[in-house]
Design goal:
The structure holds 2 protein chains of 2 kinds. By secondary structure, chain A is α+β, with helices and mostly antiparallel strands. In chain A, the strands form 5 sheets. A 6-stranded mixed sheet of chain A has the order 6-12-11-7-9-10, with helices on both faces. In chain A, α9 links the parallel β9 and β10. The radius of gyration of chain A is 30 Å and the shape is elongated. In chain B, α1 runs antiparallel to α4, α3 runs antiparallel to α17 and α4 crosses α14. The chains are: A alpha+beta, B alpha+beta. At the A-B interface, β8, α8, α9 and α11 of A face α3, α5, β9, α9 and α17 of B.
Chain lengths: 658, 533
């Protein structure tokens, strides 16, 4: 459970507490229901099995039902019912979406409420809001900026202890957490270069052998090294370079000549700092030429200023980078009386950037609705969900994103990957990592490429869908399609599933897949939660989903679906129950709940007495993560404890992050 | 294979503040810091049963560093105070006392933390905006044309550290020295941003305090053996200086990562030494008078330089390199082969000085903002205590008086600030406040009720006002009508008082903020989870 929560938190930056509360209520709900309803268990020969085995089978059955719920019903309910309640943090009206500052403040305020101490949370949330707006050059680039800030957050913040929290501020430019090795003050725009090796030539390189026959030889080579270093530094000066950023420690000689030539030097940049600078100003390291020193210096850039910054009597390097991307560099200086508090604020801010990053993305919903065929409603029905069919476009799409090629990417490797995914799903022994990769990590950008070919006629029934997908830059098209037709459903039905084509090629695939071919008439829906969707805080999402799930359960014919929907709907209420625990009278949970239900039944707008917003995508992902975690827990039938030191530590999470 | 030990579960304690142990230790800490506060504060002696030196102090930095703290709440508090002191080197006790008072007072009230934190935050913002505003009566602008206020500030800081064991004459002497050292660091030609120089403190223990001195330039300590080898310094009006950052020991450390194959009979050490001699020859031909090296100089090179009347001093250490570079104008040389003439510097004079039992090279610069403050004291503890020098800032605030004034502005802060002001009195006396300026007056205890106050009181706590003005007094902690304290606007007023007790404004302001923030943080704790593994 802890591993699941941490991995969820790492990706979304939000919802750890809700995760545990929700999971807890789900487990309690399950225990209740399995204790009562014996007839729920479908196998007849139950008496012959041991008690334990019976339980395990039962749990596994439930976990399968949960998976079905997650992949089919959840998306359906979100898309059909919940979506009408969504608010947006973008102000509507104009064609271009503009971020509404007030909404962002409410979103961040609610986020920091539970993470930062009461006396600081307004300040931190204001700071973050300012930061987001200061760093973003234009409205359309929030997503890109947030991605960069999330990736490089450690480099973009400076923690200072001993000062009051209220001294925290934003400084323009980039602050490197080290001092100059040499600082030569200079005015105006400053030309910089980055080096990743020592400028002074090495006496001998690794793996080589230097044979010295005389003392004079040694002295000559020393002399040559000095002269060569001098020449390179001189050349840098001739090219008007005023600042040298180095990822390695430069020898004394280089520092000396740089100082003489009026070049400031900053040494030992971390790889993360280097990559941040490269991302912001697009500067590649300068490669020292092999032979002659007469060459053109192409890899330089300009910075607005380069000066020491003193925070609490410690000196930092302050660079005024001129950004070539949509991110306008700014740093956050976080102050606090004690180290722990500063760290807490740093973590909260980092989490907030992760959360915002999710908010600014479209979240795709895919589900299948059965139209006619009742022949395959029994066991294998579970696998007819949209999951398998999703895998294919996802993978193809991501590979295109990676390579930006217009060529047909559908090669054998892709097929193999798809098949392994299918196999994993079919066996239902789903390792957590795999599942998270599929659903959470990639927040799938399904290639709804059909829309670009037939812009208006969204209905498309071509059997060769795979080829269309691979065609031309679906990635870009997809974006524009999404922004244009927000929240409109795209319905695509297939004569035959792409998956079954693959299945035929692979004879090892389980027989169950064949049954897929029988179910020919299914409707596949591709929809999305558009970027920026929010709901008011205070359990709004939970109560809404609870209500619609109960409604769905009433209509649903399959008993296990009804049961799972009920369990989840009831568990959802656990969150608002806790939120309103301390409230009395009119604001106590029963009152709030009854009012909400009445409003929903009469189609009135729900009235929330709380200010603050929370991300719908975040809630959705949280729900999905919890269900997956629960599925995992339920599928385990035996815990083997080993009292021995682990032979080899294989950390899957860290590898995944790489 | 190492033994495996089962992990202990974390200890989780809810409501950490209500525990008897926490309450007792908080009260103990408050008592401790309160009794140290102010010019009349009492000393504390810290013994560690396991050894180490005995510390006698009344400073928060030394006190909290030596005090073992086990309760999580106190750990937060002491860490906050220590970090504050590390930033400002002043106002630690103030912060600690205020924070303790706030926590204890609020606990007594029994309000919910949410309300208290909100109120505290509001009151703090009122305080800070008042203190920063023009009408603020506690601030005295520094008059840089006279030394009086600056001197008062330095003296206030020194007298609030009784562990320095200084007598009045010594306090005067040291304050003057510190001020002179500070003034020497201000560059003569003032630009838009004044970049202050640096005063280097040179410790000299076992000497009379009165022997302390401020010298322009830099002192480099040399051993007696080294001194004997140095030739008598020739008289000259300027000395050329070469400053080396690179080692001159002739070692071959930098030969790259490959393998080095040396033929029989070839000595790289000799080659390196040859290189050093060439360097020496260049230095001599460039007419360098003084060679300073951060690291080691090869004995042969030293010998060579001596025969050519060049003074060589090595093992200077990295900390002196920057000041030396500033004083001499020399650029630290990182090359053995080619030296640019522009990297040489110069000094006005060079002499050998002896202070106590130590010998120093004294480099006297032409024009610079670097000076050396030679601090003498009789013993270690007192010297450590004295080391806390402070560089005055632009705006100042008077001590004692400010607390009673603040108390009149705010309401819930009242008792916390009141008892803070009250803790300035250690001799069982009473504290009065006047109704015009809101300043702080101290009287002896057990006085008859009907007395003529002006006869009894002479000057207020900071020394700004005399009792001969038409003032009326009331006891601190007694009911009184709120009034707006009058601003001490007049230069004459500050001029008339001979000795003022002053505090650094920025340090005090930040201390106030840190104290309130930390108190809020502590009050916000509802559970402490401790990992005992």
């Amino acid at each position: 459970m802890v591993a699941c929560v941490s991995s969820h938190l790492r990706k979304t930056g939000d919802g750890a507490k809700t995760f545990i509360i929700f999971l807890c209520h789900l487990l309690r709900g399950l225990r209740e229901i399995t204790g009562k309803e014996k007839d729920f268990f479908p196998f007849e020969n139950i008496q012959t099995c041991g008690r334990h085995w019976k339980n395990c089978c039962q749990w596994k059955f439930i976990s399968q039902a949960l998976l079905t719920f997650q992949t089919q019903i959840l998306d359906y309910v979100m898309d059909h019912y919940l979506s009408r309640h969504f608010l947006s943090i973008f102000s509507s009206g104009t064609k271009e979406r503009t971020l509404c500052r007030g909404s962002l403040e409410m979103l961040l305020g609610a986020y920091f409420c539970g993470r930062v101490g009461r006396n600081n949370h307004n300040l931190i949330s204001q700071l973050m809001c300012d930061y987001v707006f200061k760093c973003t050059a234009c409205e359309s680039s929030f997503e890109e900026v947030l991605e960069l800030v999330d990736d490089c957050f450690v480099e973009l913040k400076v923690g200072v202890t001993g000062l009051p929290v209220s001294d925290s501020r934003i400084v323009a430019g980039l602050v490197l957490q080290r001092d100059f090795s040499v600082h030569c003050p200079a005015d105006g725009d400053i030309r910089i270069v980055i080096v990743t090796e020592t400028i002074q030539p090495l006496f001998s390189v690794s793996g080589s052998e230097v044979i010295l026959n005389s003392e004079a030889q040694f002295q000559t080579s020393q002399f040559w090294i000095t002269e060569r270093t001098k020449a390179i530094v001189k050349h840098l000066q001739n090219q008007n370079v005023k600042l040298l950023l180095s990822t390695v420690k430069q020898p004394d000689l280089v520092i000396y000549f740089a100082g003489l030539n009026g070049i400031s030097v900053v040494e030992c940049l971390s790889p993360e700092e280097l990559s941040l600078i490269q991302r912001v100003i697009g500067l590649v390291p300068f490669v020292l030429p092999e032979a002659s020193s007469q060459y053109e210096l192409s890899h330089t850039a300009l910075v607005k200023f380069c000066k020491p910054l003193i925070l609490r009597s410690k000196r930092y390097v302050h660079l005024g980078l001129m950004s070539t991307c949509s991110f306008t560099p700014h740093c956050i200086v976080l102050c606090g009386p004690v180290q722990g508090l500063v760290e807490q604020h740093e973590d909260a801010l980092h989490g907030a950037f992760k959360m915002l990053r999710q908010v600014f993305k479209d979240l795709d919903l895919n589900y299948v609705t059965q139209t006619s065929d009742q022949s395959c409603t029994s066991g294998p029905r579970i696998y007819k969900n949209s999951r398998e069919s999703n895998e294919l476009p996802k993978i193809v799409n991501s590979s295109i994103q990676r390579s930006y090629q217009d060529t047909v990417v559908k090669n054998e490797g892709e097929l193999a990957k798809t098949q392994t995914n299918l196999k994993v799903c079919s066996n239902l022994i789903v390792p957590s990592v795999k599942l998270e990769k599929n659903v959470l990590c990639s927040t799938p950008k399904v290639a709804v490429t059909d829309s670009y070919q037939t812009d208006e006629t969204l209905r498309c029934s071509s059997p060769n869908k795979g080829r269309i997908m691979d065609d031309h830059e679906p990635f870009i098209e997809n974006n524009s399609a999404n922004s244009k037709t927000e929240n409109t459903r795209k319905e695509i039905s297939y004569e035959n599933l792409q998956v079954t084509k693959l299945a035929r090629k692979d004879s090892i695939l389980p027989l169950r897949y064949k049954s897929l071919e029988m179910c020919t008439s299914q409707s596949y829906y591709f929809s999305s939660i558009p970027a920026g969707c929010v709901l008011p805080v205070g359990g709004n999402f939970e109560i809404l989903l609870h209500y619609y799930l109960l409604n769905y359960a009433k209509k649903c014919q399959q008993s296990e679906q009804t049961m799972v929907s009920r369990i989840i709907a009831n568990a959802l209420l656990g969150v608002p129950k806790i939120l309103y625990k301390s409230k009395k009278g009119n604001y106590s949970f029963p009152q709030v709940y009854v009012r909400a239900l009445q409003a929903l039944q009469t189609n009135q707008p729900m009235i929330s007495n709380q200010t603050g917003l929370e991300s719908v995508a975040g809630k959705y992902q949280l729900l999905a993560s919890v269900l997956q975690c629960l599925t995992n827990i339920l599928t385990v039938d035996l815990v083997i404890s080993i009292k021995r030191q682990p032979q080899e530590v294989y950390d899957q999470d860290s590898e995944e992050e790489l | 294979m190492s033994r495996l030990e089962a992990k202990k579960p974390s200890i989780c304690r809810s409501e950490p503040l209500t525990g008897e142990r926490t309450r007792a230790s908080l009260a103990a800490l408050r008592g401790l810091v309160t009794s140290c506060y102010g010019p009349a504060g009492r000393l504390k002696q810290l013994h560690n049963g396991r050894g180490g030196s005995v510390v006698t102090t009344s400073q928060s930095a030394a006190l909290l560093a030596g005090l073992p703290v086990s309760t999580p709440v106190l750990k937060v508090l002491t860490a906050a105070v220590r970090n504050h002191v590390a930033c400002f080197s002043d106002g630690g006790l103030f912060t600690a006392i205020l924070c303790c008072n706030l926590v204890e007072n609020v606990q007594r009230l029994g309000l919910t933390p949410t309300t208290v934190i909100k109120l505290n935050k509001h009151l703090l913002s009122l305080c800070t905006s008042y203190l920063k505003s023009e009408v603020c009566a506690c601030r005295i602008p520094v008059d840089f044309s006279s030394t009086q206020i600056l001197l008062s500030l330095v003296r206030s800081i020194l007298t609030s550290k009784p562990a320095c064991m200084l007598i009045a004459k010594e306090v005067d002497h040291i304050s003057t020295l510190i001020l002179r050292a500070f003034l020497l660091t201000i560059p003569e030609s003032a630009q838009e941003h004044i970049i202050l120089g640096k005063s280097i403190i040179v410790p000299l223990k076992g000497q009379r305090v009165i022997d302390s001195a401020v010298l322009p330039g830099i002192l480099i300590e040399v051993s007696e053996v080294q001194l004997m080898k140095i030739l008598p310094i020739k008289k000259s009006d300027s000395f050329k200086v070469a400053l080396f950052g690179v080692s001159l020991s002739g070692d071959l450390s930098d030969t790259g990562e490959g393998t080095l194959l040396v033929s029989y009979g070839v000595s790289l050490e000799n080659a390196a030494l040859d290189q050093l001699f060439n360097l020496g020859k260049q230095l001599v031909s460039d007419r360098v008078d003084l060679v300073l090296c951060q690291k080691v100089i090869h004995p042969s090179l030293k010998q060579f330089l001596r025969t050519h009347h060049v003074i060589a001093v090595d093992r200077i250490g990295v900390s002196l390199m920057e000041p030396l570079s500033k004083v001499t104008g020399a650029w630290p040389i990182g090359s053995l082969g080619s030296i640019s003439p522009s990297s040489y510097g110069s000094i006005k004079d060079l002499c050998i000085a002896k202070f106590g039992c130590k010998h120093f090279f004294h480099l006297i610069p032409n024009k610079t903002t670097i000076c050396s403050l030679l601090l003498c004291n009789r013993n270690d503890t007192a010297w450590d205590e004295l080391k806390t020098r402070n560089e005055p800032e632009s705006v100042l605030q008077d001590e004692g008086c400010s607390q009673t004034e603040l108390q009149l502005i705010t309401d819930a802060f009242c008792s916390a600030l009141e008892s803070l002001a009250g803790s300035l009195e250690h001799d069982g006396g009473e504290i009065l406040t006047d109704s015009k300026y809101g300043h702080f007056w101290s009287v002896q205890a057990d006085l008859p009720s009907a007395v003529n106050w002006p006869d009894l009181l002479s000057r207020c706590g900071c020394g700004l006002y005399s009792s001969q003005e038409e003032l009326s007094w009331s006891f601190l902690r007694s009911a009184r009508h709120p009034f707006p304290p009058q601003t001490c606007l007049s230069r004459e007023a500050t001029g008339s008082a001979s000795t003022l007790t002053l505090d650094c404004f920025t340090a005090k302001l930040s201390g106030l903020q840190v104290a309130v923030e930390t108190a809020s943080l502590i009050l916000d704790l509802s559970c402490v989870i401790e990992d005992t593994n």
